[in-house]
Amino acid sequence: MPSPRTLLELEADVVRDLALTAHPRAPWLVPKTVGGKPVLDCLVIGGGQCGLAVAFALKRDRVDNLLVIDRAPYAQEGPWSTFARMRTLRSLKDQTGPDLRTPSLTYQAWHEAQFGAADFARLHLIPTRLWADYLLWFRRVTGIPVRNGVSAGRIGPARTDDGLPCLSVETSDGVMLARKIVMATGQEGVGEWWMPDFVRALPRSLRAHAADAIDFATLRGKVVAVLGAGASAFDNAAVALEAGAKEVHLFCRRAVPMDIQPYRWLTFAGFLRHLGDMPDEWRWRFMSHILGLREGFSQETYDRVRSYPNFTMHLGRPWTGARAEGGRAVLETARGDFAADFAICGTGVRMDARLVPELAGCAANIANWGDRYTPPPEEANERLAMFPYLGADHAFLEKRPGETPWIRDIHLFGIGASMSFGPSGSSINAMSISAPRLAAGVTRGLFEADLPRLYADLRAYDIKQVTLDPARTAAE
Asked: Could you list the residue ranges forming a coiled coil in this record (predicted)?
């Protein structure tokens, strides 16, 4: 039996694999400037798993003049070390993700180098903390340039010194210029974490969203109410129980909880690769059904809360109102009021580009699904109609053509792409297909804009690959 590989040996394999598969190697982009200031070929906003995946895909296509920025400190990018409160990922352990099918870069290769093949064989699902560690390793060994602690603001149009369109971005680190921008900004990338207005009106000391930073230690001995019955709602209920809450009550709108995980069904190449190519009616039909079901919780997630006798799940009991009374949150339901010391909303996100600082200069002209497609009455869904309607390259499209043509150079790689492409920017399982597809959209735009220069380069190309012997050549 071969001896187990070390992490150092695996990293040597990574270097070799990337070198062996580097074709085509030729650089093809030239530096641009605006008023003498350098222009990036691509700026990726968001350094979590989606930002790393698309940056890696771009680097493989020799888009070397790129930068990834993230507003979070190092090791706090994305949800895994912050509000992802599950013990394990929900995806299967043998998934491929940002590795883009490079064997030495897969999670399994990393895990086996760290803990051995037998440990991976025993593993049921990937521990969340290990996935976070893996992503940091992936970022390091691939050499993706990431600048932490930089938040992005308003994006607007600009032009390079040679007349090509580009974009300017207001950031906490000054104005940045880029020919292309990829927004890999996660769940709230084209909107906000949503909770009912009557819950939002409660004092902050009485409520939070599941994506907020919650000091669960302060909930010890308290009665906690959780709205929602998706996976994240259960995760937050579990952490509250583990922190010593007196009681935790989870309120589900449906009379029957969601015990099916639709994302397991759609993990096949046909759907992940080609849903975005299908007619709007089929894209809407599939995704409105899937998103209408929400993300199901697993047996492990349920067992985590079921083991506590002070956990109660209320079926068919949505909240219809809320008020603060006597220092507590009184939640109104069709079956009477319920008083809790703290309320947590596991209610997901709402699409609304007007709420996104980066899109302040163009949000009103970003086409959404409601602008482009009218479903049959029985399939209508106002929430889903707010998702952006993206081009084939994941770029924003104009609601009114000609007003903001520069938004074609802003590409979205997050949950907001779900209605157009399925779980392309929100699922690890989809990355090996969706990240290269988005990267190809970026490189297509860069290539198209450079056609005159590239044609001139072709005409001027004069590198000889053979030396003729004049003595052996007869001129007619």
From this structure: none
d(C-alpha 317, C-alpha 124), whole Å: 34
Cα distances (Å, whole numbers) of residue 186 to 46, 60, 257, 259: 8, 23, 26, 25
A 10 A CB-CB count for 175 gives 14
209 within 8 A of 347, measured Cβ to Cβ? yes
The answer to whether 127 and 91 are in contact (CB under 8 A) is: no
Instruction: Find out whether 263 and 423 touch, Cβ atoms under 8 Å.
Output: yes
Query: Sign of dihedral through CA atoms 30, 32, 38, 40?
Result: negative
User: What is the chain's alpha carbon radius of gyration, rounded to the nearest angstrom?
Assistant: 25
- Could you tell me the maximum CA-CA distance found in the chain, to the nearest angstrom? 105
CA 190 from chain centre, in angstroms, equals 11
- Tell me how far apart the alpha carbons of residues 52 and 58 are, in angstroms, rounded to a whole number: 10
**Would you state the structure tokens that stand for residue 3, as one six-digit string?**
């001896």
- What is the pLDDT tens value at each position of the chain, 476 positions in all? 445 579 999 999 999 999 999 999 999 999 999 999 999 999 999 999 999 999 999 999 999 999 999 999 999 999 999 999 999 998 889 888 999 999 999 999 999 999 999 999 999 999 999 999 999 999 999 999 999 999 999 999 999 999 999 999 999 999 999 999 999 998 888 999 999 999 999 999 999 999 999 999 999 999 999 999 888 999 999 999 999 999 999 999 888 877 777 778 888 999 999 999 999 999 999 999 988 876 678 888 899 999 999 999 999 999 999 999 999 999 999 899 999 999 999 999 999 999 999 999 999 999 999 999 999 999 999 999 999 999 999 999 999 999 999 999 999 999 999 999 998 877 888 899 999 999 999 999 999 999 999 999 999 999 999 999 988 888 76
Closest to 164 measured CA to CA, from 369, 382, 448: 448
Distance, CA of 352 to CA of 191 (rounded, Å): 4
Whether residue 251 contacts residue 314, with contact meaning beta carbons closer than 8 Å, is answered with yes
Assign 158 to helix, strand or coil: strand
Question: How many Cβ atoms sit within 10 Å of the Cβ of residue 400?
Answer: 10
Q: Strands 319-325 and 328-333: what pairing?
A: antiparallel
Q: Report the alpha-carbon angle 88-185-72, nearest 5.
A: 75
- Count of helix runs (H) and strand runs (E) in the chain: 16, 18
Comparing CA positions, the residue from 353, 409, 352 lying closest to residue 32 is 409
pTM of the shown model: 0.94
| Beta-strand relationship, 146-148 and 66-70 | parallel
Number of CB atoms found within 10 A of residue 444's CB = 12
